[in-house]
Each structure stands twice: as structure tokens, then as C-alpha cells.
Design goal:
498 residues; alpha+beta; Thrombin, subunit H; Pdz3 Domain; 4 domains; 6-stranded antiparallel β-barrel; 11 helices
Amino acid sequence: MKNIDIRQNKTSAHFRAISASLILLFLIAPISAFAEDTDSINTLRQMGRAFATIAEKASPAVVGITAKQIVTQEYSTMPDWPFGDPFDDDFFERFFGQPSPRRREPQRRYHRYHRPVQGSGFIVSSDGYVLTNNHLVGEAEDVEVKLADGRDFKAEVIGSDPDTDVAVIKIDAKDLHALELANSDALEVGEWVIAIGNPFGLSHTVTAGIVSAKGRSGLRFAGDVPQYQDYIQTDAAINFGNSGGPLINLDGEVVGINTAIIGPGGNIGIGFAIPINMAKFIYNQLVEGGKIVHGALGIYIRDLDPDLAESLDLEITKGVVISEVIEGSAAEKAGMRRYDVIVEFNGEKIEKVNEFRSRVAMLKPGTKVKIVVLRDGKRKTLEAELGESSTQLKSVKTGLEAMEQLGLTVQNLTDDLAERYGYEDQIGVLITRVEPGSEAARKGITAGMLIMEVDRKPVRNTKDFDKAIEKATEAGKVLLLINDGRYHYLAVLKLTKE
């Protein structure tokens, strides 16, 4: 019995010990889980505080921009005749017994008006220099800037570059809060970023997200498409009005200029920003000299695809193939040849034409670079000294000179316009409006005519035209070769010297 009593006591004690342990475990488990939840919540709080701190420090340097862009709208009207249209078939049959020898054509008229657009920008120097987008201010007559403290300023457009969609404006103010600019090459996919801007006029809206991708190119947006594309993709919410605002890293430094979105008209988590290194390259040139100069090799290139790779007996399918080397160019001097496949540039892999062109263009002429090509299947390293690809300053001032002094506006001759006006197989810029009483109007120039040459040199687009007019200003006059749809004739217009 005693032995039994002893075993029963031991069993009872063991049971009590197990019960106590289970109870303690149940008591501790919720405390542990609660502690883990508390740690997670604290982490989120810290992240929220970090975003709040960055936004608080950066917001005073973010500005709202309102610009008045010049828009020329074309429309057609039919002439009114007091006794009926003399070229109408019924009119001719009634009086002459036969159909009209020609149908009347609608008269083309042009309506010029100002379209207000809103966007963002950010201060990069305490004396009032602001970075923003070319598509906001590049074609504007009047630009206004509103600071975070409520002050309003008229802004001067220092210059803009359609090829990168970067613009610089300046306000007359001092001791302003300016943002620091980061090294966007060091940005990594997955990093947290913050976008600040004025979407839909909602001042200083802050959104957060991550860097979704880098080096995006070959994108098509509404309006003019920048020639050099190397976009940062982000899922931070970007909407209309965010254009020109900063994309900021967790150090409070600008890594990009918010520029565009893909979607039906609102944020769907796919936004794009110009890398700030590209913007710095343009900014420095506009502020220092007013002339944008890009590095150039002097080659025509295309993407390597599987079919082309097979034709060249290559196993790789990514790279840039040279189709032509311009005589006397930096590429020719470096020994580059047709069918060479560029796979590396200054130690970085090259896969697409757009990224390669952007990297070359963001270097100054005279820069020495190393290029690795595949030639007959073998790697070959070449050294080149970049030449110059110059784009004259594209600014409101140039456009206004053409309007105010010549009294006309022009636009690029598209295929549709060439067919509509009968200028197929022609080159030049189409006149969209002539100001009544202007120098152009006095010389008989009208809308719908084609300017083919300026001072005996062909003009292929509005950039050529602006450059030629700016140069002609020094001489005080300009010679235009004009096509009116039937004949070519010459017109000399006077320009006021600066």
C-alpha cells in the first residue's frame, strides 16, 4: 500500500507539474504574440515618421507651376455668297447648263489661344533656380510659381530641352530652401521613394512607393516624345500635375523628376521619372551657357534581335548593331565598323539602343570612352573621344521672336499635313498663323504656306527653323524660300537686332 501511495503521490505531483507548465505556456504565448505585434507596429510607426520627416523637410522646396501655353487650332469654313455659291453644281447648271468646273474648297482658318496647364517643380538653389519639365514650360508665354509659404512669383524660362524633357526656370527670390540632388546611378530597384507635387492642383501631395525598375526606354506618351529616355519606374502614385516634381529617396535627396504615367489618365502604379543625373547634365549647361551639347559617336545603330544575331553568327541576342559609321566621326577615328555589335560602354553592359544613346548623350564632347564590340564573334575593346551633337537652346524666347518679329508661327510638317496641303515629298515647316499687320502679312505670307529654306539653308523641322531665325537676328533680316502649293517664291523679312 505504501508503495502504491508513493507512486500515486509521484503521479499526482507529475500531473500538477505538467498542468502548471501548460497554464504558464498559455499565459506566456499571448504575451509573446502581443510583443511581436507591438514590434511590427513600432516598425511601421518608425517608417511613417521617416516619411513624415522627409516630406516636412522637402515640401518647402517643392513649388506649384502654372503656365500659359500657346495653342493654334485649325478649322475649316465655307465662304458665304450673297447669290449662292458660284462654284456649286446647281448654280452652274442653272446659269450655264453644265456642272461647275471645280468644286469650292473650304477655307482654312486658325484660332490661337492660351491654354493654362498646371504642374510642379522644385528649387535647386537658394537664389531661385527651379527644375521642372519641358512639356510644362517649353512652349509657354507666361509662367507663374507658387511657393509652399503662399508667395507667388513670375518665372523666367532659362531654357528647356525637348530631347530630355528637362527645363530650368528662375524666380527673383533669395534665401530659399533648396533640395539636395542624389546620384541616381546608385539607385536600386526596390528602394523606397517619395513623390511630392501638385496633382490636380492639390498642393504638396505626398505619395510613397518603391523603385519598380530602372533604365526604361522606348516609351510613347502623348505629345512630343523625348529623344533620350532612361526612366526610373515607380509605383508611388503620380497623377496629372505631378509632372516636374521631385522623386526623393529616404535620405531626402532628389533621385528623379516625375514626368509621365502609363494608363487611361490616372495613376495605376506605373509612373516614370527622369534620373536626376540626366537632369543635372542639362541644368548645368542651361545655367552656364544656354547651349545644350551632347556627346556623339557618329554612328547609325539598331537593336540586336534573334534574326539579326543568327545572320551575324552570334549566340547573344542583346546588344547594339552598327549599321553605318559616319565619315570623319569619332566612331570612325576609333576604328568602329559596320556590323560591329556594341556590348559594353565604359564598363557597363549595353542591351538596347535607347539606353546606349542616352549614356553617350549624357557625356560632354571630348570625353574619352571605352567601347567593347563583337567583331566576327570576337571581343574587341576600342577607345573613342566623343564628338559633338549640338542642340540649340529651345526656349520661349526663340518662339516669341518668330511670332513677335516675323508675325508667324510654324509647326512640323507631318505626313497628314503634307497630304492635306499638297506638300508630299517636300520638306519644311508649315505656317499655322500669320498676325494681321505683321511683317509676314505685309509680304503676302499666309497660313498654310510651307517655309522650305531659311537664308538658303533647308529647314526640316521647327528646331531647324528656330535655330536659323536666332542666327538671322544678328543680320537683322532673313531670306525665306516659301511654297504656296503652286509656286516657290522668295521673301525677305526684317528682324530686330538684340
